[in-house]
Amino acid sequence: MSLPQIDHTHKPSATSWVASANGHSDFPVQNLPFGVFSRAGGARQLGVAIGDSILDLAGAARARLLPGVNASQLTGSSLNTLMAAPPSQRLALRHAVFDVLTNDQHRAHATPHLMPAEACDLHLPAAIGDYTDFYVGIHHARNVGAQFRPDNPLLPNYKYVPIGYHGRASSIRPSGVPLVRPKGQRKAPDGDTPIVGPSTRLDYEVELGIWIGQGNALGEPIPIADAGRHITGFCLLNDWSARDFQAWEYQPLGPFLAKNFQSTISPWIITAEALAPFRIAQPARPAGDPAPLPYLFDLADQAGGALAITLSARISTAKMREAGQPPHRLSGGPASNMYWTPAQIVTHHASNGCNLNPGDLLGTGTISAPTADGYGSLLEISNGGKTPITLPSGEARTFLEDGDEILLTATAQAEGFVSIGFGECRAIVLPAI
Amino acid sequence: MSLPQIDHTHKPSATSWVASANGHSDFPVQNLPFGVFSRAGGARQLGVAIGDSILDLAGAARARLLPGVNASQLTGSSLNTLMAAPPSQRLALRHAVFDVLTNDQHRAHATPHLMPAEACDLHLPAAIGDYTDFYVGIHHARNVGAQFRPDNPLLPNYKYVPIGYHGRASSIRPSGVPLVRPKGQRKAPDGDTPIVGPSTRLDYEVELGIWIGQGNALGEPIPIADAGRHITGFCLLNDWSARDFQAWEYQPLGPFLAKNFQSTISPWIITAEALAPFRIAQPARPAGDPAPLPYLFDLADQAGGALAITLSARISTAKMREAGQPPHRLSGGPASNMYWTPAQIVTHHASNGCNLNPGDLLGTGTISAPTADGYGSLLEISNGGKTPITLPSGEARTFLEDGDEILLTATAQAEGFVSIGFGECRAIVLPAI
Q1: Within the 225-244 window of chain B, which residues sit less than 8 Å (CB to CB) from chain A?
Q2: Mean pLDDT computed over every residue of chain B
Q3: Which of A138, A166, B109, B172 is the most buried (most CB within 10 A)?
Q4: Does B140 participate in catalysis according to the annotation?
Q5: Distance between CA B386 and CA B398 in Å, rounded?
Q6: How far is CA B387 from CA B248, B331, B390, B397, B399, in A?
Q7: Which candidate, A229, A254, A410, places its Cα nearest to that of A337?
């Protein structure tokens, strides 16, 4: 499998003349994620995050700071055009931006095109054509399955099929957009008939999002050896879930209104190139598990297709914010708890000829660790609502209350390299209308 | 519920100076469906079908034949802009086109903008943002459920929830685009492990498609009294299904690769306005069934929210075509076998705040009649592959073979009105690559 290579942009000694990028920023010069921003209600523009600032890419191109870059890809209001280009063009842009931001001689020319991030609004980085959510967090699948089938938590297909289903593209929103508590049908286990009202079991789910770059034609599968070049990068994804609606509606065709009221993503695309130093071997399958079927097996993918990313979920309630208490950690753990790699997910999706397009988003499914400190949803943390947790404010939670804010973050780390972050994926729960 | 009204465009005595529209055409002047066409590899243009011809809308507007119409809605390469406009603008366009095509004094000016349909290619009428497939054909749900659960074919939620799930927008193709037999995982009931290969249980499904017009903002449900104005019109939908993949993959999150390799639609949008004379009462629910929950209940919808449309599915094999045999009827029946109305489907979809957009497509799910001559899929017709049918060519079929072509058609009929048709939804099965 062709994977992005480690190059000079990953050198740990590299620093930027943007001082805030050096030190403990999510966005050091080794990261350089792409996104879409606007200033003061102005037009949407393409940018790169650097420390506490954003480099305006079209402005930098106009100032002739990005030689060798196809400037026509930088003038739109979404990253779809850049995502549709060969990965080599994205890499050329990364190299040019790295040069601008590390080389002090560019400081004077580039500074006018650098915006303080706090003065900008961040938007969805791409027009999302189709959104698919997978279920590759095996500990999550086992934990949830055990609540329904204690003796047989994982279904027979789980270790052969990267289980996935289509989700709703139109209701994906960037970090910061509040979530209105949804209304819907639920039926109590002992109730005769369903009732309609605001969800009483609103939950979060910690996922990685995979951004598709170049697509494939309808009818033409993507061999796993080629899957890497179809992945532009990654983001964080909170797959909000109304567990009461879900339990009532999901048979036989899967989740629908329990999920499609809103999903929240972090707005920066952490590129496959930025993550090159953080590729690790896919963990060996437990003894007795089947090997991946041949179309899902690639030696290079097994050797380096997983990612050394640590995920974290925190909660902040209205009472905690009033008391000045910081967000409380709910859970966290490594992305290596994915049973399938991103390449396997992409290849499986296209294996029947289904066409993926630039800007499509794939969710991994909830990534839980095997132990309770790393469960990626309140459904797991509260054991289906049976065991409340107590927050630093003294408040108890089984599921989310109005005013609660969920904050997802992630960091990629590897010995000898500068860590990079994903930025924030946050949203506050507002009361039902 | 506000529904389109019967007006002068539905007068049975109205005829067109386009002679082929008068008589037994799917597209008399009472129909006037919207679509997207191109000529000889040229650009996509918006058009209206009339008899065996297509009226070029932008050309007609340039020739000042469409007074009072917003011509800017007619110049693009998809109908999304027109669909996003208030229904009154679509109605104004219908009235203007009706005037052009019925009034002989416009013949000379309009003829240069009339194309023979056989010289045109037809395309998807809209850029489809999200595609959702429902499951409201109760006889289909019962037939399929009985194959898995003979004693309990309908799940407890069926009569409360218009069951639906998200499908794949990117792989929807217009009538005429061949279908390549998909490859995928299947597991025989007595097999230890799955195998990978071309589907051996490829099926069709007869559905109606519902085109969304004006959308709703995220977080703002659509009251059922308003649902009508969000529906632009209807089409035919063949929801091709690989039953072997489906049986293996669908638990717990629903159909995925069994469906998303391709879906075929008829290319003309049969508008809500054209269907005004064909509105009928939703059939009374059987005794003992629950009433729709209040958010899904509207007196006007119950009185006139169903449609007097008769669906038909036919097959043509390679051997039949060689022998000059016409397509063979597989099944057919009335759309009133839907347990929920289009308005109930739309309102349920948005009831949790999910935002629908102009150009979104909703499938009804397979519409089967209660008796075997009206089953809408081979899964039902062949009783899960156990009972082959014999075709006029002497060939037997349980599921589709390479070279088979499926043709869906539909007609709306009502006493005292000119019948209108949906055009063709056809595609031929090509061998797996």
Answers
A1: 242
A2: 97
A3: A166
A4: yes
A5: 7
A6: 22, 15, 10, 9, 10
A7: A410
Query: How many degrees, rounded to 5, is the angle at CA B122 between CA A126 and CA B243?
Result: 70
Q: Is B166 on the interface with A (CB under 8 A)?
A: yes
Residue in A closest to B191 by C-alpha: A156
Output the six-digit token pair for A134: 């997978």
Cβ(B263)–Cβ(B240) under 8 Å?
Answer: yes
Give the span between the Cα atoms of A100 and A268, in whole angstroms: 19
- CA-nearest of A240, A293, A257, A130 to B256 is A130
CB contact under 8 A, A354 and B293: no
Residue A36 amino acid letter: V
For residues B234-242, average pLDDT = 98
**Contact yes or no for A249 and B294 at CB 8 A:** no
Yes or no, beta carbons of A293 and B194 under 8 Å apart = yes
Nearest to B174 by CA among B431, B429, B428, B426: B426
- What is the complex's ipTM, to 2 decimals? 0.97
Question: What is the count of residue pairs from A and B with beta carbons less than 8 Å apart?
Answer: 188
User: Using a CB-CB distance cutoff of 8 angstroms, which residues of chain A are in contact with residue B130?
Assistant: 168-170
Q: Are strands B425-430 and B179-180 parallel, antiparallel or unpaired?
A: parallel
- Which residues partner with B328 through β-bridges? B315
Task: Read off the pLDDT band of B149 (50, 70, 90).
Answer: confident
pLDDT value of residue A260? 98
Which residues in A lie closer than 8 A to residue B153 (C-beta atoms)? none
Give the phi and the psi of residue B301 in degrees, each rounded to 5. Answer: -65, -40
Return the residue in B133, B155, B166 with the most chain A beta carbons within 10 A, the one to mutate for interface testing.
Answer: B166
Beta carbons of A157 and B182 less than 8 Å apart: no
Residue ranges and CATH numbers for the domains of chain B are: 8-123 (2.30.30.230), 131-430 (3.90.850.10)
The verdict on whether omega for the bond into residue A252 sits within 30 degrees of 0, i.e. cis, is yes
B219 in contact with A at a CB cutoff of 8 Å? yes
pLDDT above 70: residue B1: no
Confidence label for B135 from pLDDT (cuts 50, 70 and 90)? very high
What DSSP assignment string belongs to A266-298?
-SSBEETTTTGGGEEPPPPPPTTPPPPPGGG--
Query: Quick one: pLDDT band at residue A1, thresholds 50, 70, 90?
Result: low
Nearest-angstrom CA–CA distance, B97 and B90: 11
CA B63 vs CA A201, B112, B191: distances in Å: 59, 10, 67
Establish if B260 touches chain A: CB-CB under 8 angstroms: yes
Residues forming a β-bridge with A242: A202
Q: How far is A278 from chain B (nearest CA, A)?
A: 31
Tell me if A70 sits within 8 A of A89, measured CB to CB: yes
C-alpha distance from residue B87 to each of A221, A281, B220, B233 (Å): 41, 56, 20, 11
3 state SS of A157: coil
Residue A189 to residue A248: CA distance in whole angstroms: 9
Asked whether the beta carbons of A306 and A275 are under 8 A apart, the reply is: no
For residue B246, what is the nearest residue in chain A, using CA coordinates?
Answer: A253
Listed in sequence order, the residues at least 6 apart from A322 whose beta carbon sits closer than 8 Å to its beta carbon are none
Structure tokens, A298: 């690639």
Cα A25 from chain centre: 18
Q: Are B49 and B175 in contact (CB under 8 A)?
A: no
**Which pair of tokens denotes residue A148?**
């329904």
Tokens found for residue B17:
């100076």
